[in-house]
Design brief:
single chain, alpha/beta, FAD/NAD(P)-binding domain, 3 domains, five-stranded parallel beta sheet, 19 strands
Amino acid sequence: MKNFAIIGIGPRGLYALEMLLINLNKANKKLNITIFEPTAHEGAGPVWDINQAESNWVNIHERALSGLKARPSFNFDSKIISSFPAYHDWSEFNQTQEDPDTFPSRKKIGQYLHERYLALETVLKTSKFFKKVNKEVTALDYQDNLIKLSTNENQTYNLDAILITIGHQPTELSDEMKQWKHFAETEKDNIQFYDNPYSVCKFEDLKNQKTNTINIRGFGLAMIDVMRALTINKFGYFKVIDSHTLKTEYVQLKPQNLSLVPFSLDGKPMAPKPLNQAIDDWYKPNNEVLSAFKKEIELAAKKDTTNNIHFLIDAISKIASHIYLSLQDRALPHNLNDKALKLIISNWLQDNNYKHGLIQKTNISTYKLIERYIQMGLGKIPVSLDYCVGQVWRHCQPTLYASLSHSLLDNEVIEDIIKLDDHSKRYSYGPPIESMQQMLALADANILVFDFVDNPDIKTTNKGWKLTNKDGDTISTNIMINSVLDAPQLLKVNAPLVTSLLKNDLIQPIHTKLGIDTLENGQVISTIKDHNLPIFILGRLCKGSVIGVDALLECFGKRIEDWADAFVKKV
């Protein structure tokens, strides 16, 4: 009997295991299955760790988690594995279109995923065909038609095939980050540098100190997690004072001299998602429009003449211009027709610094800019064109990801598509309105400082870091937190397993700035081996071969189902 392993049992690995078992049952086939997961919370993985701080929120509303569907019951090794409820049933989700969307903590999602796994393991552990190894896989090689796997404790396994579903991996620090880390390690003891924002539990000592000025590199979702972790402390907490707008105040229990100083390359804040389903539906293309979008971009992607991303920009611009016109009085006043709007959108997508009266000005104060985006999300003020395009993009993303993954487009075009999608995330991956209201509350409490947010000059001194903004103002601190999470560039990943795969020529990047080159069924394309190498990889490390790898719902999507179906047919 063949020996098969799954490396990494986070959400994607969990669903791959489920789909594998269900397909084996349907085909009446058997495999010896070993899973490797070093953490103690299988199903959740590090990102959805069930022990992490309650202050780490998900940036996808619970309404959208309808994609976490129920698992049906099935048989394995003459044993019945019971069904497991969908997330909405498990969480007793109940919400009207007018209710503000709810955004659960990451640990709540992790609890669902872990319980879903445990319901499997209860039965699987009684089978001789299943084995769990709570060790880290550090090396893989391929010899004599067998995969040689090694763990961090020098245990070795011989396998016929493996599936790798590992998620976020450590990457080599940039030169600046290396310099800052070395600086903090060699200077005075009170100079502290954190090269990663997670787990935020590491900030427990910082958050309850009487006096602190803390620089935070980055102005995105991870920065918000860090911000919340540092300010929900013995000195204060957040309180929503208006349930309709989620306006928030920071209640200070006793004085604390705390300053948080975020900064980024462009200083632009994220735009929050709409308040509820009723407002979100303003931006939602109907099924007919999405179907036409799918056909249009798939057709363009198959043409030999497609050598840039204009086909995608044109397709999105067409949808967004129609929707902006449909907003009528909800949009900023204008007398432009569809063609003129499409041109403005196209120009803005190609250049985020493009200026027009319908595009929200970003040269106003950060506080005012956040305030305006909140009001747009609440439907209280006319919506700018950029906010509209960002929300439309979010609704088009699942179609975009499915249609352009494993396409025949040139690698440079794929890289440009991913860059464009990443630029959209300031809107499409926007946080809850309540998160942005918390930022304003901290600014009102003189804790969150926006004065240095836009690409300050940074120098190290014997006291720590000195930031200088464009007005010549300065601020110094001895604590720096890096909240910027690196993209999955394969050649920069320094995890032992990945470096082992590269060293042994078992994988290759689809592009020097992207991830692993794979076939549509997840099988790796190796440099010196044939395409029948029995190594499959799904998920974040395939960025480039696959577009849209970071979303939770992608872990429970068609790619995993297609892999399991194709794999079992060959067993």
